Amino acid sequence: MPKIVDHDKRKIKIAETTWKVIIRDGLEQASVRKIANAASLSVGALRHYFSTQSELFQFSMKLVADQVKQRIARKNYDGEPLDVMKEIVSELLPVDEDRRIEMEVWLVFSTRTLVDPSLKQLSQTVYKEIRHAATLVIEGLINLQLAKDDLNKELEIERLYALVDGLALHALLHPDQLSIEKMQDTIKYHLESLCNGNG
Q1: How far is the CA of 169 from the CAs of 77, 109, 112, 137, 177, in angstroms?
Q2: In terms of Cα–Cα distance, which of 118, 104, 120 is closest to 21?
Q3: Distance of alpha carbon 103 from alpha carbon 165, whole angstroms
Q4: N-terminal to C-terminal alpha carbon distance within the chain
């Protein structure tokens, strides 16, 4: 009886192998042949799933974004409002090994968008989705009447997004300088600074 292959799982496995090759060797060295070897596939078998390197990179980049979204959607947030919001923001930061890998791969792909137009649209879509997460947090503070009366919603959304980006980048480039605890303390401090003190 022929072996039944789950093609969706195989594509995900190839994408995750792509991440590992990129982290180990860099994006420029992540050739289809090298990725196929790492995934224990022939180049022909890999091309059955992804006809071009660009198509493989698009799927691999989208998988990072999808995993973050699914994790946020699956999680049961419970507790004090500020703690819940800190948890939501932490989903976007490299606070454990899985998220560090996701963030590192995303950073590499993001630089690739400067020269690969096929990745640019996906990058813009994910930018909007992450900005939406920042929007939920800021609007949550406002709707729960925790925010200062003079809080500028639009500017605070941008500032929170910029803070997340900056912390993630610093944590990847200088992990010895920015610990997970420091990242989370910084997020907590920032959120508390937006509050009116009545929460």
Answers
A1: 26, 14, 16, 21, 12
A2: 104
A3: 10
A4: 64
Go through the domains of the chain in sequence order and give each one's CATH number. Answer: 1-51 (1.10.10.60), 58-193 (1.10.357.10)
User: The tokens of 160 are what?
Assistant: 């929170």
* Average pLDDT over all residues of the chain: 89
pLDDT digits (tens, 9 = 90+) for 84-131: 999 889 988 999 988 899 888 888 888 888 888 888 888 888 888 888
For 62, counting Cβ atoms within 10 Å of its Cβ (0-12 exposed, 13-18 middle, 19+ buried), the class is middle
CA triple 157-104-76, angle to 5 deg: 55
Asked whether 65 and 129 are in contact (CB, 8 A), the reply is yes
Residue 182's pLDDT band (boundaries 50, 70, 90)? Answer: very high
Cβ proximity of 94 and 172 under 8 Å: yes
* pLDDT band of 49, cuts 50, 70, 90: very high
Residue 156 CB partners (closer than 8 Å, separation 6+): 138, 194
pLDDT, position 5: 64
Residue 27: C-alpha distances to residues 18, 24, 63, 105, 161 (Å)? 9, 9, 16, 9, 26
Question: Which residues, 6 or more positions from 85, have their beta carbon under 8 angstroms from its beta carbon?
Answer: 137, 140, 141, 191
